[in-house]
Structures are given as C-alpha cells and as structure tokens.
Amino acid sequence: MSESLISFRKADILNGEQTVIFGLDMEILRGDFVYIVGKVGTGKTSIIRTMIAENPLGGGEGSVCGYPLNGLKEKDIPYLRRKLGVVFQDFQLLMDRSVRDNLSFVLKATGWKNADEVEARVTEVLKAVGLQTKAHKMPHQLSGGEQQRVAIARAILNSPEVIIADEPTGNLDNETADGIMKLLTSINRSQGTSVVMVTHNRSIFEKYPGRVFVCKDEHCSERKDNDVIDLAITI
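^ thats the sequence. predicted structure below, dont judge the formating
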C-alpha cells in the first residue's frame, strides 16, 4: 500500500477566522496526482494554505509529510515546508537576479553550503525543466511559460515529497499551459512526486487525468468516476 503523505480527517479549513470548508476528509498518497477544483471563494486555496501551514487548522485532524498540523510548532514549519515544493500562479521569482541566482538563493537558504554542489543541482533541475540554456537570463527576458518552468525548477530543488501548485497555468495561454502540465505529469510519473493542483480549467483535468476533489457549498469531496462536474464550477 502506498504511503500517505497528506491526510485530513473531519478537518475544518479556515480563511482568516472564517471556516470555509467543514469536515474535510482527504488522503493523498505517494505518487498521486490530485486536482482541487471549484468556484472562486469555495476554499480551494485555503486548503493548500493549510497544507503548507500558512493557515492554522480550524478543527479535526491533519498531517503533512509526517508533521501533525494540530499544534504544529512555529520552529517546525520551515522543516515541513522543505518537504513541499510550492508553485504559484504569478511565479514569484526574484526579478533582480538571474535564473541561476534565483535557484541558488533557495538552496543556500535551505542549508546548502558547497558552491560546486549548488551549481550542480541548479544545472540538474534546469535541465529537468528544459531550461539549461537560460540560466544566465533575467526573469523579464523569459516568456510566461519559461518563468513558470523556473518556478517548477525552484519547487523541485530539494526533492520534495509533494508539489503543491496554485493555478500554475492560470496566466498562460493554452499551448504553454499544456507544456507545463506535461512537465508536472512527467515529474509525477518519473520521480513518484505527488502533485496537488488547484485549477479552474476543466480541460486540464480532463486531458491529464488524476483524482479530483470538488469544493462546493462549504464542503470538499472526491469526485466518483461517474460523477459529472457542473460546468458552472470551472471556467
């Protein structure tokens, strides 16, 4: 049986002080590709903020990569986050430094000391995302799709157990989004890295199958194989 990496049991998910999802049951196993879908404001992003310990758990139980979210100590949060790779819709690259320096900055911040090892790892992840010739470029010199590939490279630097992606294709055209999805599914399959992805785009989770959790009416539950998702839920 596959190892459980993320688990929620009767969990209440908060946005600020407001509960946006009641009684969440969710189990994400090693190697899973999971989508969280739903209308704006239904709590999708609040779930992943809870996973990365940005939002506290409102009630029930939750654990991520071996760390219980109930009573999680402040000092443990950085160690939890090192087991996760987070990809944002707006890339969140450091615009004043090159692609290479964006990535080496993260490695040094997470304890890498040896300059040769840092350089080797940066080269390795850039090759993995097809950007080995772009290391010297500044972010503004890259296309949106290339910037998102850098963001994915940054997310996999420390070989995370789970990639958490919040609308990673939201600012990209369809062709570029397709390339990003091929990259994420390739990482998922070749490395066994679990992926949890928030998306509004129905065509993505139809083209690239995975488990689908639907957020609606203050609840979030997994779609069964024969369930039809209301088109109004996605854009």
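Residues 96-158 form one domain.
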